[in-house]
Amino acid sequence: MARSTNWRIASRHFCLSEELPLTEFLVESPFQPSGDQPAAIAKLAEGINGGLRYQTLEGITGSGKTATIAWLIEQVQRPALILEPNKSLAAQLASELREMMPTNRVEFFVSYYDYYQPEAYIPSSDTYIEKDSSIN
Asked: β-strand 127-129 against 113-117: which pairing, if any?
């Protein structure tokens, strides 16, 4: 089978020729949103539907942030990119979301770089900056 060397053409052809079924985002939980969660879900959904590109959900440990995120995804029916500050929290969040949304795909990625600076060139000062990184 011949492969296209231009991934843009190949991906465009795939997108135009294949109609993928839409998967509904569903939360399976014995609990319902409570306390501040309904207001947080409504406010975050309003922001998403209003076109806000970035929003932050903050709360103390055990306050139900993960459940709030799951219910928010279910309400707006859109995929999400969720950022966590460390590997342990990322793995925990992914595990909890998989439990709450078992019919949906939940993935997580952890970079092995502590620090990464790509190479760069600054024309105004004719400065070249070499690539630098630190791997953990």
From this structure: unpaired
